[in-house]
Amino acid sequence: MQIKKGVSVLKNGKLVAFPTETVYGLGTDAENDDAVLKIFEMKNRPMFNPLICHFKDIDAVRQQAVFNKDAEKLAAKLWPGPLTIVMNKNKKCTVSNIASSGLRTIACRIPSNPIARDLLEKFNGIIAAPSANISSRLTATSKKHVVKNFGKKIFIIDGGTSEFGIESTVVDLSQETPRILRPGAIENKIIKEILPNLIENDDNNMPIKSPGQLYKHYSPNIPLRLNVKDVKKNEVLLNFGKNNLKSRIKEINLSINSDLREAAKNLFKFLYELDNKKYSGIAIAPIDNKGMGIAINDRLKRAAFTE
Questions:
Q1: Is domain 2-194 annotated with CATH 3.90.870.10?
Q2: Domain spans of the chain, in order of start
Q3: Dihedral sign, CA of 247, 250, 256, 262?
């Protein structure tokens, strides 16, 4: 019943929030200019920040993008799944230029979440969908988070808590050498095994080709302090693993066993829980910068960024 209504909403050029394996998306018909514009307006999102387009299968992607050999390799191993590939548009591309921010590239993903796949199959089109939150604020990983951002302004398909809890990994294949634009739910090393010439470095001077590249992103309403050695008087603590850090007020541990996948899944959920203006800020324990920790630290660094 939720899917049927979601399809109807999409066909009428309106917005629907839906679950994916990574986070909740705020979706609309990617080929409808007016509908896509509503996403930018609802999120208060900069128009230069392109959207990820979600497809039902590889054939649908081929109709819109230049699918090179590297794309073939990644798709064979990692699609459907939490991977976004940025490719050059082909001459027949029908995706709204607003969705791609006027660029000659398009960010493509085939999700593995069964609800998202069912929605795409029954809609029989392309869904442009960034994360379902106000731009630069905390990412939504449950229906509750979406409601906190948008109230009852949009239809929400409830799929429980997101499996990964962190956004897709974005790989740029629009140039000669593949490059990570955003670390995410698929570890960099897995992609590097498939594409050995992959560039992993974080170059903030790169043109904006996908979500997650802005300096300020994923932010709570109160300040973050990263890699802390102590916790201040009125700070709450987002801990990781076993250590001597203590908060006098409140503390949540991303993973007592230092499990980075568990930490990623809990990251935004716990930040929502700690984001309260009665606290002076959130102290963040050091988190290993390896594997999934690379994506976690990327999110925290951007969340803590101040102008």
A1: yes
A2: 2-194, 224-303
A3: negative
pLDDT at 290: 96
Answer yes or no: are the C-beta atoms of 21 and 15 closer than 8 Å.
no
- Compute the distance between CA of residue 179 and CA of residue 171 in angstroms, rounded to an integer: 6
| Cβ count within 10 A of residue 233 | 8
The whole-angstrom separation of Cα 176 and Cα 211 is: 21
Q: What is the rounded distance in angstroms from the CA atom of residue 95 to the CA atom of residue 106?
A: 8
Dihedral over Cα of 47, 45, 129, 68: its sign: positive
Distance CA 104, CA 15 (A): 25
Neighbours of 80 (CB within 10 A): 20
- The three-state secondary structure class of 138 is coil
Q: Are 89 and 50 in contact (CB under 8 A)?
A: no
pLDDT at 305: 73
Q: Check residue 102 and give its pLDDT.
A: 95
φ/ψ (deg, to 5) at 40? -60, -40
Q: Do 161 and 19 form a contact (C-beta atoms < 8 A)?
A: no
What is the arrangement of strands in the sheet containing 24-29, beginning at the earlier edge strand?
Answer: 155-156, 16-19, 24-29, 127-128, 52-54, 105-109, 83-88, 169-172, 179-182
CA of residue 51 relative to chain centroid, distance: 10
Give the residue ranges of the chain where pLDDT is below 70.
Answer: 201-217, 306-307
- Chain mean position to CA 237: 24
Q: What is the pLDDT of residue 218?
A: 81
Burial category of 277 from C-beta neighbours within 10 Å (exposed 0-12, middle 13-18, buried 19 and up): exposed
Beta strand segments in 66-157, E: 83-88, 105-109, 127-128, 155-156
Q: Which amino acid is at 235?
A: E
